[in-house]
Amino acid sequence: MGQNHDVGSRIKVGREIGSFDSLPEDCISNIISFTNPRDACIVALVSNTFNSAAKSDIIWDKFIPPEYPSLIPPSRVFPSKKELYFTLCDDPLLIEHGKKSLWLEKASGSKCIMLSAMSLSIIWGDSPMYWQWIQIPEARFELVAKLIDVCWFEIRGRMDTRVLSSRTRYSAYIVFKEANRCNGFEDVAIEARVGVVGQEATRRFICFDSATGGQNQRRRRGRRNLVKPEEREDGWMEIELGEFFIEGGLTNCDEIEMSVLETKQLHWKSGLIIHGIEIRPSKIQ
């Protein structure tokens, strides 16, 4: 009985797919364009007709930010909008004079942004006694900030929400490495804040010390959970600072501020290399 039901269901699905296959290819492409990049790739597996329709520029043009012509040099030519889309996912573009980078999340097409250390406000960042600006080959940007020695640790970054994708929940991460000698961060609670400028921000406590860290681990210190670093695929470390939601719309032009600071204990800290703050869609819990 159950087997007959399964066979009947497959026959019904096959007939439904067959009815869609009879539609003009442009019509199928238009229908797929109302989904998202992940679904478009899945639909391409349904049949040869769907596979052909899913390659159409009609679809992928909707997944590409409208401002892309100003971001990509005219000398770069792409055979299709689909190839352009995946290039924007895999190869971050430097924007705003090389101080930020932009790319797309592959599954959703949502915009991701990384603010370089050069675009952040770093207290004492212009004093070589406390911070130095260096070049390293694994960095995405021309310069990164190396912490020499400070007792007042404060880094802030701001981002206009109009640059990001509407109706999307984002997470902000500070991206860093430890230099050969990293001191003063052992199990130290660093306050992280994320929120709209002028409104109350969400708060959490993070720890740059990765010696006892690990993926998704948190150590209890007193009454606070310290969010520990996680290693990225590119070899850098990151710590999630917090989340925010982008409503979008023409009238929504908020500015998001992200900060990390330790200004209470005032003991000396050294040895961090700050790459920047990365903003990307939050993981689905």
Describe the protein's architecture and organization.
- The chain is of the alpha+beta class and 285 residues long.
- It has two domains: 2-91, Monooxygenase (Up-down Bundle), CATH 1.20.1280; 94-281, Galactose-binding domain-like (Jelly Rolls, Sandwich), CATH 2.60.120.260.
- It is 20% helix and 35% strand.
- The protein contains six helices and 16 strands.
- Strands 1, 2, 3, 5, 6, 8, 13, 14 and 16 form a nine-stranded antiparallel β-sheet that branches.
- A hairpin with a 2-residue loop joins β11 and β12.
- The longest helix is centred in the N-terminal third of the chain and has 20 residues, at 2-21.
- The model is unreliable at 4-15 and 213-223 (pLDDT under 50).
CATH level-3 fold name of the largest domain:
Jelly Rolls
Order of helices and strands: HHHHHHEEEEEEEEEEEEEEEE
Number of strands: 16
Shape: elongated
Radius of gyration: 23 Å
Number of helices: 6
User: What is the count of structural domains?
Assistant: 2
Largest sheet: 9 strands, antiparallel
The residue fraction in helices comes out at 10-25%
InterPro entries: F-box-like_dom_sf, F-box_dom, PP2-like
Pfam families: F-box (PF00646), PP2 (PF14299)
Organism: Arabis nemorensis
Domain F-box: 17-63
